[in-house]
Design a protein that fits this description.
By secondary structure, the chain is of the alpha/beta class. It has a domain of 95 residues: Ribosomal protein L13 (Ribosomal Protein L13p, Chain: A), CATH 3.90.1180.10. It has 6 helices and 6 strands; from the N terminus they run βαβαββαααββα. The strands form 2 sheets. It has a 4-stranded parallel sheet, covered by helices on one side. It has a two-stranded antiparallel sheet with strand order 3-4. Helix 3 packs across helix 4. It is globular. The two termini are 31 Å apart.
Length: 148
């Protein structure tokens, strides 16, 4: 008996839709990262992309616990002198609500080629509609969301 190791392209990939309305950012990011990596499948293989596509709608309605909306900050460097930028979560929620969730998930996937490939399967939209109806996405069951 040997251990099953998935090969690239050997597993079918489904599309899931997650509604982010009134979901806590960190808890939702963990669920999304697990689906992107494929850890919810019995065929999970760490060195291979066994994950599935995730569509997140209503990203503008996510919520923070406590006072994180005002205290949480995001930083990046533009590669120019004096280009260290900082923004609060409240400001990003008003202007670019998808970036908050994308940054949270990005920090939960591996920081290598595989993680960057898995992040391309994440589609985040601020409103309730998305252009991926042709892929026939499946609504993520609520019991899966509550279990994690």
């Amino acid at each position: 008996m040997s251990t099953f190791m998935a090969k690239p392209g050997s597993l079918p990939q489904r599309w899931f839709v997650i509604d982010a309305t009134d979901q806590v950012v960190g808890r939702l990011a963990v669920q999304i990262a697990n689906i992107l990596r494929g850890k919810h499948r019995p065929e999970y293989t760490p060195h291979c992309d066994t994950g599935e596509f995730v569509i997140v709608i209503n990203a503008e309605k996510i919520r923070f616990t406590g006072s994180k909306l005002d205290t949480q900050t995001y930083h990046w460097y533009t590669r120019y002198p004096g280009g260290y930028k900082t923004v609060r979560a409240r400001d990003w929620l008003e202007t670019h609500p998808d970036r908050i969730l994308r940054e949270a998930v990005k920090r939960m996937v591996p920081r290598n080629r595989l993680g960057r490939q898995q992040m391309t399967k994440l589609k985040i939209y601020a409103g309730p509609s998305h252009p991926h109806q042709a892929q026939q996405p499946i609504e993520l069951p609520t019991e899966f969301q509550k279990k994690k």
